[in-house]
Design brief:
The complex is a heterotrimer of chains A (about 300), B (about 375) and C (about 300).
Chain A lengths: L2 H20 L3 H26 L7 H18 L4 H23 L4 H22 L14 E2 L2 E2 L3 H24 L1 H11 L1 H6 L4 H27 L9 H14 L5 H16 L7 H15 L4 H13 L2
Antiparallel strand pairs in A: 1-2
Helix pairs in contact in A: 1-6, 2-6, 2-9, 2-10, 2-11, 3-4, 3-5, 3-9, 4-9, 6-7, 10-11
Chain B lengths: L1 H18 L8 E7 L6 H20 L8 E7 L4 H14 L5 E2 L4 H13 L4 E3 L16 E3 L4 H14 L4 E7 L2 H13 L6 E8 L7 H9 L4 E5 L3 H13 L5 E3 L6 H7 L7 E5 L14 H15 L4 H21 L3 H11 L3 E2 L4 E2 L14 E7 L2 E4 L2
Parallel strand pairs in B: 1-2, 1-3, 3-4, 4-5, 6-7, 6-8, 8-9
Antiparallel strand pairs in B: 10-13, 11-12, 13-14
Chain C lengths: L1 H31 L6 H18 L4 H28 L4 H23 L15 E3 L2 E3 L1 H23 L1 H11 L1 H6 L4 H27 L6 H15 L4 H22 L4 H15 L8 H6 L3
Antiparallel strand pairs in C: 1-2
Chain lengths: ~300, ~375, ~300
């Protein structure tokens, strides 16, 4: 991985470590936790959309599956949290495979709507069959790693963001490896990639599963933090929010996932005074970004920096 | 000279401000979490408006024992995550003495672990029984909205009186409808009633004729609809068009003149258990709730040009209960909690007459409702 | 028998709106290969603006309809000129999908801002007792909805097949290059397709509101179901969407009626997924035509 990435990783780690020390406001820590959880989803979605050129309007489904399965296994079946999370990722990947095999034969719009349909179906399932139905359920066990229970906001902040760092390292490596280059080639031209002898469908499925795992990991972390779940947190609206994170952050750079997640998580806080306008502002921001800044913040910043260097 | 004149004026102003009651004592801070926007905004908006209006009235009258009242209102956007964030902010940043709200059962459940571990009294305005039960695990939690089970009991009691034995229920697939459905199914046998049909519909559905027809063909003697939002109106219109010939009962969410307006003549004859706020003008003058209801409704309508509805009333009750506790027990979280649990007895509010106790952190039962029928486009209390 | 008929009528009512939305999808798709995920919002615009003119401003019925349709057409025009046209050249599918989603959110936000979250309604076009056919009840407004849908379909058919303009649009959908060579202004055709589909959506909204009320956020669900209708009939085939829409409405009604009302919504989605996965050309489409479409 390039020098730029290594530097960024070091800076990120540094910021994560000193943030709770410098900023005493635990409320901001909580926002940071949610931003980190969202970042996990956004990074996976960026890889799927930006590098593999596939679209998903149903990421909230995997987010929800991860949350619900992990919660149910640890609450109703008494399994240790870490095992529950692992099994939740397994269930999520299985769902991803089942969806991906027929869906990835579709192109463009069809794939988009297939993922939208999938997302809605999962939402209905959670709604009808999830514990507590539409009212949701609580008392979910807190995150517990090898005997240590994460109760304080501080602890959780470090946990979530360390996960983000690990996922980033893994993802950056992936993109730079052979698979990653194949992905980018595929996005550029499927025919050329096929001629080069790379099995396209297998690759697409792998990426789809990867993004689903990131999303369900995030969901599990959400469940064991808030300790209460209901289907209303996993709707089409949330899938669209994840999409917005990728668009704003930059579809072609996975650092964009982090930036987009931060912005979208902080946005409601900033908009607290604007009540009636919130949906309007979301729509406006998204539209304007797509019209004028569709490369996304991270790629645009990098471009500006490069131009400045080569003045 | 001019300069001294100005200085004198400024000093004078300071003296006046300094000695005026609202500025000489520390404000009492409480927090409020309402779903002002989002799917449940029909709850949150009147709740927020009510609180704003009351705080102004209280402070104009000198505050609480001279202390100004400050209510910091947060919008949860009908989202549990936002409700959790709001609760944390109010407790950790604003250091409030108590929190009123949230507006929905789901959000209340999400917030309970936080307020409990922060040992801050929470007075929810949502209906779910699980908010205050089991009481042993809800030491710091109270609520002012009637139990949905109480509303069901009111309906079933009336049905028993009028000899209805078979009912068909039709409920919306949201947590409000779901809670009602569970209550309807659970309580029916206790009243000798059997539920012969159990139909459901979604919040955005446009036509419920199919479900109603199934209910009729199952042999029901009455239909009970449990929802809030346009669903209530559509069911009413469908029921009317089908000329079902059996009475339609609605949940306590029916209590808004808007519903009668939207349903038109289809609303004629619909029966529902309603909190007295909606029918305050039909109450006898001596009724303990009438005076406060009259003041609340007329003030609200004058200021906001719309009716507060039962939901606004829940916020009224929650705030006034906390104000009462502050007045008598002072700005201490534990003392406030103890006061609410033990001293709110025979306390007339908009939702009913509250009787809190260590075993009941809601304090209302089915007597909080009146059975009301729509006659000639207006409410009428059924005897 | 009356039970079956009742379910049928209920299905036809909801199916009409799905059909209209589906047709709208097809018209835009045919001229641009874009799926306009904001299609459902035009139904909401139709319902809410009709209330605004008819009840809010107490204008006469015909004037209100005309004004509502004008508003819908204007919104569609603005959408096309400001967001679709500039981005269409990029040929980036992902982008187009997201733009239509963004615009749908924007429209929804504007509607919420103006109308709030309350449901709105207005009196049915004609007042009177519902008809009873073999024990099944059908309200007069339902007949209006079905009738207006049928009329719209006929008008569209005539437009696309008998008028120069309509045939020019049809030409674009078949082969853009050839159409250009024949001197057809493709850019104008695209604009027109958006306007027409906006109008159709609005017509549906105007008709259905007296029955089912209208709120600012009904659009999303309608877009999804309307899209299901279009897919079922084969994307791009006008008559297919009609059949798809009515079929969907009836299937939902029968599911609620004979199986379990909680699963109604899942029906549409499952059918759509099934068709997408196994017969993407739809019930009527031919797979070869599908492959020829460029994405």
């Amino acid at each position: 991985m390039g020098k730029g990435n290594i530097l960024s990783l070091l800076i990120l780690t540094l910021v994560i470590i000193i943030f709770p020390i410098v900023i005493k406001d635990t409320y901001l820590h909580t926002i940071g936790i949610f931003a980190g959880i969202n970042a996990l989803v956004a990074i996976g979605l960026t890889i799927l959309m930006g590098y593999a050129g596939q679209i998903s309007l149903g990421q909230a489904a995997f987010y929800g599956i991860g949350a619900y399965i992990s919660a149910i296994l640890s609450l109703h079946f008494g399994l240790p949290v870490i095992l529950s999370i692992f099994l939740a990722l397994l269930v999520s990947s299985t769902a991803a495979i089942i969806l991906a095999i027929p869906a990835l034969r579709l192109k463009g719009h069809y794939l988009a709507v297939a993922t939208l349909g999938f997302g809605e179906i999962i939402h209905i399932i959670l709604h009808e069959w999830g514990p507590g139905g539409p009212s949701g359920f609580g008392d979910i066990p807190k995150m517990n790693l090898f005997g240590y229970t994460f109760t304080s906001t501080n602890d959780y902040f470090y946990l979530v963001w360390m996960c983000v760092v690990v996922i980033m390292i893994f993802s950056l490596n992936l993109i730079n490896s052979m698979t990653g280059k194949a992905l980018q080639a595929m996005h550029g031209s499927e025919i050329a990639t096929q001629t080069a002898g790379i099995n396209l469908t297998k690759l697409k499925i792998k990426v789809f599963i990867l993004s689903s795992i990131y999303a369900s990991l995030a969901g599990a972390m959400y469940a064991h933090y808030v300790t209460f779940l209901s289907p209303s947190s996993f709707s089409l609206f949330h899938s669209v929010l994840f999409l917005m994170m990728v668009v704003i952050g930059g579809i072609s750079n996975i650092w964009g996932g982090i930036v987009g997640a931060l912005i979208i998580t902080i946005l409601p806080e900033v908009l607290r005074g604007f009540k009636e306008f919130d949906i309007l502002l979301y729509g406006l921001i998204l539209t304007l970004f797509l019209l004028f800044m569709r490369k996304g913040l991270v790629p645009m910043t990098i471009d500006t920096y490069k131009r400045w260097i080569h003045r | 000279m001019k300069f001294f004149g100005k200085l004198l004026l400024i000093i004078l102003a300071f003296i006046i401000l300094w000695t005026s009651p609202s500025y000489c004592k520390e404000p009492y801070k409480i927090g409020a979490i309402f779903s002002v926007t989002g799917a449940a905004s029909f709850l949150g908006e009147p709740e927020k408006n009510t609180v704003l209006m009351l705080v102004e009235q209280i402070n104009k009258a000198g505050g609480i024992n001279g202390h100004p009242l400050e209510v910091i209102i947060e919008d949860s956007k009908s989202d549990e995550t936002q409700a959790v964030l709001a609760a944390k902010k109010l407790i950790e940043k604003d250091k409030v003495l108590a929190i009123i709200g949230p507006s929905t059962t789901g959000e209340s459940m999400a917030v309970i672990p936080i307020t409990t571990s922060a040992q801050t009294p929470l007075i929810s305005v949502a209906a779910g029984a699980s908010i205050t039960q089991p009481v042993k695990e809800r030491y710091w939690v109270f609520k002012t909205a009637q139990y949905d089970t109480s509303a069901v009991e009111a309906i079933y009691t009336y049905m028993k009186k009028t000899g209805i034995k078979k009912v068909g229920i039709i409920t919306i697939t949201t947590s409000f409808g779901d809670a009602g459905r569970k209550a309807l199914l659970e309580l029916a046998p206790k009243f000798g009633i059997s539920v012969v049909a159990d139909e459901r519909y979604g919040p955005k559905d446009t036509d419920m004729t199919t479900q109603l027809v199934k209910i009729k063909s199952a042999g029901a003697q009455a239909v009970i609809n449990w929802s809030v939002g346009p669903g209530q109106v559509i069911v009413t219109k469908n029921w009317h068009a089908l000329k079902m010939g059996i009475p339609l009962f609605q949940s306590h969410g029916w209590g808004s003149k808007k519903n009668i307006e939207l349903a038109g003549k289809a609303a004629e004859g619909v029966i529902a258990p309603l909190g007295r706020l909606v029918i305050w003008d039909k109450l006898p003058d001596k009724h303990p709730q009438k005076a406060l209801l009259k003041k609340y409704v007329t003030d609200y309508e004058a200021r906001y040009k719309s009716e507060p509805g039962t939901f606004g009333g829940h916020a009224y009750d929650a705030l006034m209960i906390v104000v009462d506790a502050l007045k008598n027990a002072g700005p201490d979280k534990k003392k406030i909690r103890d006061y609410i649990e033990n001293k709110i007895k025979n306390w007339p509010g908009t939702g009913g007459i509250f009787n809190m106790s260590p075993n009941d952190h809601c304090g209302l039962d089915m007597t909080a409702f009146e059975m009301v029928i729509v006659k000639n486009g207006d409410w009428e209390i059924l005897k | 028998m009356s039970l079956l008929l009742q379910f049928l009528f209920s299905g036809l009512t909801t199916g009409s709106v799905y059909a209209l939305v589906g047709i709208g999808f097809n018209i835009v798709y045919n001229s641009t290969s874009i799926l306009n995920l904001a299609q459902g919002e035009f139904v909401v615009i139709g319902g809410l603006m009709m209330w605004f003119f008819f009840v809010g401003m107490k204008l006469p019925f015909a004037t209100s309809v005309a004004l509502t349709l004008t508003v819908a057409a204007t919104v569609a025009l603005l959408m096309e000129r400001l967001t679709i046209k500039p981005l269409l050249k990029k040929g980036d599918l992902l982008l187009m999908i997201m733009v239509t989603i963004a615009v749908s959110i924007l429209i929804r936000g504007l509607l919420m801002f103006k109308f709030g979250k309350d449901p709105y309604t207005y009196p049915p076009f004609t007042e009177g007792e519902p008809l009873v056919i073999y024990g099944a009840v059908i309200t007069q407004q339902t007949l209006w909805v079905i009738g207006i849908t049928a009329l719209s379909i006929v008008i569209l058919y005539l437009f696309f097949n008998k008028t120069m303009l309509g045939r020019a649009m049809k030409a674009c959908s078949l082969d853009i290059k050839a159409a250009r060579l024949m001197g057809i202004n493709v850019s104008n055709m695209v604009m027109l397709s958006f306007i027409i589909s906006g109008l159709i959506g609005a017509i549906g909204g105007i008709a259905i509101t007296p029955i089912s009320l209208m709120e600012y956020d009904k659009g999303a669900m309608l877009s999804v179901k309307g899209f299901c209708a279009a897919i079922m009939g084969g994307l791009g085939r006008g008559r297919g969407a009609v059949v798809g829409g009515f079929t969907l409405g009836i299937l939902e009604s029968f599911t609620a009626g004979y199986i379990h009302s909680g699963f109604k919504d899942a029906v549409a989605l499952l059918i759509m997924l099934f068709i997408l996965f196994f017969r993407p050309a739809g019930i009527f489409g031919k797979t070869e035509t599908l492959r020829l479409r460029k994405f």
